[in-house]
């Protein structure tokens, strides 16, 4: 079986974090509902990922797959493929759980669903706090962060971090908290370079993790007006040919050379291998400069239905949208949690 060798970066708690992870968000379907059809494919692809050497797994309460992710992890431990301490498991606290005491409730529920004794990293998924009924709870993320500091102190998690925080929010958090976040997970890809945010994080020892690393490059995310590059972009194809690599590999390698960890999602075994086969070549400076020119600030993930909520982190758009029920109530709108 093929094997990949994924290097590690250091977190500010002194622990290693593998420089590439496996993302487990399967998305919502055309009706804006969670569709479990792809869950068995994800289980197969994640099993394969661990077999070939992936050690970093990114999940979240929102994704509804913590039970299945935990089953794969525990099976691979039982099979002797990997030890728990060799794995790096991240999950996230959803924005219904922003009261200080609720953070521990959420983390303990994730541990139960994953059937794990500790997490390597837990993130505040978004800076806003929104109830299941779509009410703006206006809870300051500084309060929520105290809940994160508490689960860290209790040993439920090895590191705590945030996600979708902009620079101002991160600076305010750092200035007013005991524990500096170990990581900020945000959208970064060739269109959205996030230079200011990345520079701030790297200067302050906060590891940057890129979600949606392919942006709108891949067909599932390709919008009618979305900008280049696509998978057939001639410039990137030419660069890839020079190194014997695909356009997606060039993309992930470029982010790695910026010191950024990517967590691409795929339910396709061949892509699991492809995405991690980026540590055996290096883009030269000319190619890095060329690729950097695709950065135009274009955002792929735009949850404009949250934009009027306190602490929404992105620029606002002139639209008014309803929050999809599946992002508020777990069972596609029913007011029930996942088991
Ligand atoms: P990605 O950029 O990872 O794109 C996923 C898509 O790319 C899928 O359609 C997949 O297809 C396709 N794909 C994957 N690899 C290849 C390849 N080598 N060649 C061609 N196509 C490929 O986007 P995501 O939005 O899924 O982000 C990745 C992860 O980041 C998520 O799974 C989640 O863990 C995290 N995330 C976090 C967010 C946050 O708010 N913190 C928000 C969004 C994501 P297929 O599966 O069919 O192979």
UniProtKB/TrEMBL annotation:
<feature type="domain" description="NADP-dependent oxidoreductase">
    <location>
        <begin position="20"/>
        <end position="295"/>
    </location>
</feature>
<dbReference type="InterPro" id="IPR020471">
    <property type="entry name" value="AKR"/>
</dbReference>
<dbReference type="InterPro" id="IPR023210">
    <property type="entry name" value="NADP_OxRdtase_dom"/>
</dbReference>
<dbReference type="InterPro" id="IPR036812">
    <property type="entry name" value="NAD(P)_OxRdtase_dom_sf"/>
</dbReference>
<feature type="active site" description="Proton donor">
    <location>
        <position position="63"/>
    </location>
</feature>
<feature type="binding site">
    <location>
        <position position="125"/>
    </location>
    <ligand>
        <name>substrate</name>
    </ligand>
</feature>
<keyword id="KW-0560">Oxidoreductase</keyword>
<protein>
    <submittedName>
        <fullName>Aldo-keto reductase AKR2E4-like</fullName>
    </submittedName>
</protein>
<dbReference type="GO" id="GO:0016616">
    <property type="term" value="F:oxidoreductase activity, acting on the CH-OH group of donors, NAD or NADP as acceptor"/>
</dbReference>
<dbReference type="InterPro" id="IPR018170">
    <property type="entry name" value="Aldo/ket_reductase_CS"/>
</dbReference>
<dbReference type="Pfam" id="PF00248">
    <property type="entry name" value="Aldo_ket_red"/>
</dbReference>
<feature type="site" description="Lowers pKa of active site Tyr">
    <location>
        <position position="92"/>
    </location>
</feature>
């Amino acid at each position: 079986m093929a094997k990949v060798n994924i290097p590690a970066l250091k977190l500010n708690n002194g622990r290693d974090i593998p420089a590439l992870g496996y993302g487990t968000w399967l998305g919502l379907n055309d009706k804006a509902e969670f569709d479990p059809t792809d869950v068995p494919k994800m289980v197969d692809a994640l099993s394969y990922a661990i077999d070939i050497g992936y050690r970093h797994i990114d999940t979240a309460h929102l994704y509804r797959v913590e039970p299945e992710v935990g089953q794969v992890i525990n099976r691979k431990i039982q099979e002797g493929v990997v030890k728990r301490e060799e794995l790096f498991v991240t999950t996230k606290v959803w924005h219904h759980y922003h009261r200080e005491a609720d953070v521990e409730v959420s983390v303990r529920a994730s541990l139960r669903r994953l059937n794990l004794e500790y997490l390597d990293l837990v993130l505040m998924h978004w800076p806003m706090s929104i109830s299941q009924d779509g009410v703006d709870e206006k809870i300051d993320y500084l309060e929520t962060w105290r809940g994160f500091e508490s689960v860290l102190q209790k040993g439920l998690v090895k590191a705590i971090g945030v996600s979708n925080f902009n620079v101002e929010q991160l600076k305010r958090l750092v200035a007013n908290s005991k524990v500096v976040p170990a990581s900020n997970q945000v959208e970064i890809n060739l269109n959205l370079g996030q230079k200011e945010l990345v520079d701030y994080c790297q200067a302050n020892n906060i590891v940057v993790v890129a979600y949606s690393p392919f942006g709108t490059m891949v067909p599932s995310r390709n919008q009618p007006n979305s900008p280049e590059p696509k998978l057939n972009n001639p410039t990137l194809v030419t660069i890839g040919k020079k190194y014997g690599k695909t356009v997606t590999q060039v993309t992930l390698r470029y982010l790695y050379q910026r010191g950024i960890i990517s967590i691409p999602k795929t339910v396709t075994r061949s892509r699991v291998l492809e995405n991690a086969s980026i540590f055996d070549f290096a883009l030269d400076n000319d190619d890095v400069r060329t690729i950097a020119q695709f950065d135009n600030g274009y955002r792929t993930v735009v949850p404009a239905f949250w934009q009027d909520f306190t602490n929404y982190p992105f620029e606002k758009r002139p639209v008014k949208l309803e929050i999809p029920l599946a992002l508020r109530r777990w069972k596609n709108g029913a007011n029930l949690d996942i088991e």
